[in-house]
């Protein structure tokens, strides 16, 4: 067209949500000839925004998408009310009439509200738009209890939002477990334990009967079909969606039996001039509620509008999803519900860490079909990439991440970003053609990682592999939100007096953070002693077990582990532990770390148990944290005829010095009184073995799945030398290791290995030893027992309840049986 010519085709888009925005942007990018003039009509008073991150609006996040440019007219605050297909016009609620050559219906969906008594009471809301959240926030002021009806993705997000407003929140789900569309029963059960561990009541498997009003006429109670009553001054419905197909019905276009505008694989209705995309469209007999399929439909329609010979079709969607719900990693990919007769399942449950993993394989165990991950979804990107392909290793290796790819080995057709349908080959081509060197560049060019963000770690691995293959130095940036490594962030936090993640990202990063940087910064803040871990923003960043200062067990109870330095304990303290275990009906177990674990405590019992233990002189053993666990010891020269040094005294000295020291990973230690090594010091992160002339120090060993013998670091050390070197070793490790990196793998990653480490902490090659010494002294001087501090703070104690509306009521789902004169959890299959 000439400079004065105008577009010769008119496109009207009804609705301005994420799918609509993607369609318009795709057209603007590809319509280089200026064929279309575009009018977008949206009923909300604001332009399109990121609904995936809706809850973060309450935290002040700006969710708005960038404004459209070019030949685009955006009308807000008006709803398309009628379509005249003969005249090819639409009419809005304000009386506006717009003509079209092509009409795209992107009206989205509406929340489903079950037809129960009381659903119209004041205080009852839906959870769909920013306006909904604003209304909920305003109404919640001065109120204390809330409930969310719906335990799916949006329901749990809504529950998180309600809790964030200061209300004691609960979830009602008619299905037997949470997130039934994404998780199997085991995954749902583990997620429930995590959610209840955050002080949120879960009522699953029971329908809701009615909402009841209080004396003021507003909602006050949720009544379930089994007669249970939940106090709730705010009730939010998030129980599913229904396609907004009323425009199609009004103009005679076919709709599905259960709703949705019927379209073909090109997303076109039976009227050649009318299309439908997003949650209002019924394509292939299905309505899709995830952002990825909606974006794919938008891309298909953009292709078709720009070419009479366009061939793009919507071929279904990858329904895989990964998210962090209230600090809990949850992922589902492929077909996690494959028929047992045609598939094999491999399941792993770690009740201590709160982890559930289930992978589904073909009946010959050669092809990965799908899976569920709860509590640990780090391997999600790699596992999803292998769905439908030949396994690179044994099923159990896949389960435990033993086949983690570097990114360069993935087949080109592997879909990396399911939200935007970006393949590994597409990312590689973009990196090569546009000389991309960072993740933001890849995102701008391919859109990979721009929606839910779960694929960003795998995108980074592909980028790193391509840059390495090209001989280009790879950036050590921890993620796209920070241009720094974890070690560099540690120095920024330490030197800049940063005390919160929000402050750090505002001053030194971009965006709102992600699953990579937020936990890493939490570890840094905890290591530097930035307040109690249950204080303010710190509480939300910590790992799951830290939320209750206890380890979550398989049946929803917790373990209590008081510190027993060096394994030495008086008879009086032994009696206290026995009395506490007896009075609260707990299971007792002497551990390999030479202390006594008490199992089976309900969350509301934890403060009562710890009050008695603290009053008796016990303190937290930090079994729940990434911190020093124990310093094991033999009896040494005090009692043993072979002992050459007092190993027990040294073990106690070390444990009391390093107690509460937060680190990238848990730390274990041991002291043996002679070369017979009864304390097994050489399998620990730092181990000490007595000699006739002092102590030998061993570093960077560990047991577990990949055992490693510790390396001999120094010999015949004095007490002072020993403690000095351990101080520096621990502080240097904390400053430079990656999150969740054990000392063994950290040492192996150091350029120069043990010799370099010796130069740093003995010869002071980097000139930092005085700083490392001072940092440890600050830790020792500033130590305070986390449980004692919690018991002295009524605000922190309020989180320790099984049911927020009945703080002292025990969870009836927790049951035990007796074996060998002690309690043990009743297996789930026995309960059924």
What would you note in describing this structure?
- With 832 residues, the chain is α/β, with parallel strands linked by helices.
- The chain is built from 25 helices and 38 strands.
- The strands form eleven sheets. It has a five-stranded parallel beta sheet with strand order 3-2-1-7-19, with helices on one face. The protein has a five-stranded parallel beta sheet with strand order 9-16-10-11-12, covered by helices on one side. It has a five-stranded antiparallel beta sheet with strand order 21-22-25-24-23.
- Helix 12 packs across helix 14.
- The longest helix has 18 residues, at 719-736.
- The protein starts with 8 loop residues before the first strand and ends with a helix.
- Mean pLDDT is 86; it is low at 402-406 and 828-832.
Short description:
With 832 residues, the protein is of the alpha/beta class.
Features:
single chain, alpha/beta, 832 residues, 22% strand, 25 helices, 30% helix, five-stranded parallel β-sheet, disordered C terminus
Poorly predicted ranges: 402-406, 828-832
Mean pLDDT: 86
Write down the overall geometry.
globular
Structural class: alpha/beta
């Amino acid at each position: 067209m000439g400079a004065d010519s105008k577009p010769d085709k008119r496109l009207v888009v009804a609705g301005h949500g994420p799918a609509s925005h993607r369609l318009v942007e795709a057209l603007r990018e590809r319509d280089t000839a200026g064929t279309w003039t575009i009018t977008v009509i949206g009923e909300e008073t604001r332009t399109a925004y990121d609904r995936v991150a809706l809850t973060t609006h309450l935290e002040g996040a700006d969710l708005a998408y960038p404004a459209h440019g070019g030949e685009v007219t955006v009308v807000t605050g008006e709803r398309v009310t009628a379509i005249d297909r003969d005249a090819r016009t639409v009419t809005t609620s304000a009386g506006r009439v717009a003509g079209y050559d092509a009409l795209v219906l992107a009206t989205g969906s509406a929340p489903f509200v079950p037809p129960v008594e009381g659903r119209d009471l004041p205080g009852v809301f839906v959870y769909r738009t920013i306006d909904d959240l604003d209304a909920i926030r305003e109404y919640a002021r001065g109120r204390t209890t809330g409930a969310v009806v719906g335990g799916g993705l949006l329901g749990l997000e809504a529950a998180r939002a309600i809790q964030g407003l200061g209300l004691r929140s609960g979830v009602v789900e008619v299905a037997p477990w949470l997130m039934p569309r994404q998780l199997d029963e085991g995954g749902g059960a583990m997620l429930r334990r995590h959610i209840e561990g955050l002080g949120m009541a879960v009522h699953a498997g029971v329908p809701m009967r009615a909402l009841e009003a209080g004396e003021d006429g507003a909602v006050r109670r949720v009544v379930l079909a089994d007669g249970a009553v939940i106090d709730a001054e705010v009730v939010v419905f998030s129980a599913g969606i229904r396609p907004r197909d009323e425009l199609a019905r009004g103009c005679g276009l076919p709709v599905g039996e259960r709703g949705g505008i019927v379209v073909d694989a090109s997303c076109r209705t039976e009227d050649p001039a009318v299309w439908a995309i997003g949650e209002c469209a019924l394509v292939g007999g299905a309505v899709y509620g995830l952002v990825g399929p909606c974006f794919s439909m938008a891309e298909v329609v953009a292709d078709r509008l720009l070419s009479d010979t366009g061939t793009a079709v919507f071929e279904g969607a990858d329904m895989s999803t990964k998210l962090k719900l209230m600090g809990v990693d949850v992922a589902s990919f492929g077909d996690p519900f494959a028929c047992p007769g045609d598939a094999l399942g491999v399941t792993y449950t770690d009740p201590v860490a709160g982890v559930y993993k289930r992978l589904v394989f073909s009946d010959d165990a050669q092809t990965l079909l799908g899976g569920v991950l709860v509590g640990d979804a780090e391997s999600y990107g790699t596992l999803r990439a292998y769905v439908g392909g030949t396994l690179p290793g044994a099923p159990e290796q896949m389960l435990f991440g033993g086949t983690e790819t570097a990114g360069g080995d993935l087949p080109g057709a592997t879909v990396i970003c399911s939200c935007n349908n970006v393949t590994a080959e597409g990312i590689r081509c973009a990196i090569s053609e546009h000389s991309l060197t960072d993740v933001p560049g890849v995102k701008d060019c391919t859109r990979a990682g721009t929606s839910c963000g779960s694929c960003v770690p795998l995108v980074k691995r592909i980028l790193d592999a391509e840059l390495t293959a090209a001989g280009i130095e790879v950036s050590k940036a921890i993620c796209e939100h920070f241009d720094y490594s974890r070690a560099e962030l540690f120095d920024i936090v330490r030197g800049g007096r940063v005390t919160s993640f929000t402050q750090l990202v505002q001053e030194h990063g971009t965006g709102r953070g992600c699953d990579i940087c937020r936990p890493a910064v939490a570890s840094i803040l905890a290591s530097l002693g930035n307040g109690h871990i249950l204080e303010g923003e710190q509480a939300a960043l910590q790992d799951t077990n830290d939320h209750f200062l206890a380890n979550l067990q398989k049946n929803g109870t917790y373990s209590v582990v008081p510190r027993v330095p060096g394994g030495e304990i008086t008879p009086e303290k032994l009696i206290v532990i026995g009395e506490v275990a007896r009075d609260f009906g707990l299971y007792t177990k002497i551990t390999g770390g030479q202390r006594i674990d008490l199992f089976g405590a309900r969350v509301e019992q934890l403060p009562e148990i710890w009050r008695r233990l603290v009053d008796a002189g016990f303190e937290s053993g930090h079994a729940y944290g990434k911190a020093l666990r124990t310093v094991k010891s033999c009896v040494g020269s005090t009692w043993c005829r072979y002992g050459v040094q007092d190993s027990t005294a040294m073990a106690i000295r070390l444990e009391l010095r390093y107690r509460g020291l937060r680190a990238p990973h848990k730390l274990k230690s041991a002291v043996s009184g002679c070369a017979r090594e009864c304390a097994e010091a050489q399998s620990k992160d730092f181990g000490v073995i007595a000699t006739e002339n002092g102590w030998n120090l061993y570093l960077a060993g560990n047991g577990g799945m990949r055992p490693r013998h510790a390396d001999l670091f120094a010999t015949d050390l004095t007490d002072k030398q020993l403690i000095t070197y351990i101080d520096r070793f621990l502080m240097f490790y904390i400053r430079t290791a990656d999150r969740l990196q054990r000392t063994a793998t950290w040492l192996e990653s150091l350029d120069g290995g043990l010799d370099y480490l010796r130069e740093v902490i003995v010869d002071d090659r980097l000139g930092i030893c005085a700083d490392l010494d001072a940092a440890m002294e600050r830790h020792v001087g500033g130590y305070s027992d986390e449980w004692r501090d919690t018991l002295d703070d009524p605000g922190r104690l309020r989180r320790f309840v099984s049911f927020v509306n009945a703080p002292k009521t025990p969870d009836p789902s927790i049951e035990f049986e007796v074996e060998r004169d002690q309690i043990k959890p009743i297996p789930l299959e026995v309960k059924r």
